[in-house]
Q: What sequence folds into this?
């Protein structure tokens, strides 16, 4: 299991308040109170953004290689899934259901109510729209990271998701610890800010069309 390290820190900007040397003590005390008030407001706003809007994370580990690598600096969108349903191909950060202290990064493969079948390196999805199933064309995978041949067939429960790492050889994901409840999802990966030559919006997001090549945002 490869973790994602939360790199959040709250930085307060220093403020300098100048007053005339003749200013009486009460005005100085008033300036101090104003500075404390501004600082508290800034802290509250920063914490609100951190816990309810967006949060920075740093990738640690190889479970999403080659899409994400060590020290990739990501911004996680906490807002979208409050109004929209997570989609197949989204790259998400979530709390491991068995250990909420650990944050992981994986890709959504199976949606609620779907049947996910893995035969060797081939992933097939069966749902109401495609009762005969369709195969995911995962061109973003590195053939060297596919790992051992395996056979998996599961039905995803309601309000849960089947997630996989792009590095199937080393990733500990839904194949091992089971389904991901929606309420454990922190958010989707919105931005990659580092490395600078790989800055992107919605990096790694894939969209699949049955019978066609998938599309992916780099």
A:
């Amino acid at each position: 299991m490869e973790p994602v390290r939360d790199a959040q820190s709250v930085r307060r900007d220093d403020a300098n308040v100048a007053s005339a040397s003749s200013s009486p003590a009460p005005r100085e005390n008033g300036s101090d109170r104003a500075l404390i008030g501004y600082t508290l407001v800034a802290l509250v706003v920063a914490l609100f953004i951190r816990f309810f809007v967006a949060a920075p994370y740093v990738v640690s580990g190889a479970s999403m290689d080659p899409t994400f690598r060590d020290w990739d600096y990501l911004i996680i969108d906490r807002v979208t899934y409050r109004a929209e349903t997570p989609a197949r191909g989204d790259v998400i950060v979530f709390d491991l259901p068995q250990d909420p202290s650990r944050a992981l990064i994986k890709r959504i493969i199976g949606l609620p109510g779907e049947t996910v079948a893995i035969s060797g390196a081939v992933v097939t999805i069966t749902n109401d729209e495609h009762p005969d199933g369709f195969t995911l064309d995962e061109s973003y995978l590195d053939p060297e990271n596919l790992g051992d041949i395996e056979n998996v067939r599961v039905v995803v429960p309601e309000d849960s998701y089947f997630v996989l790492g792009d590095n199937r050889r080393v990733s500990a994901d839904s194949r091992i610890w089971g389904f991901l409840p929606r309420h454990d999802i922190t958010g989707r990966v919105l931005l990659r800010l580092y490395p600078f030559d790989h800055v992107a919006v919605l990096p790694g997001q894939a969209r699949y069309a049955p019978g066609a090549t998938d599309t992916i945002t780099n």
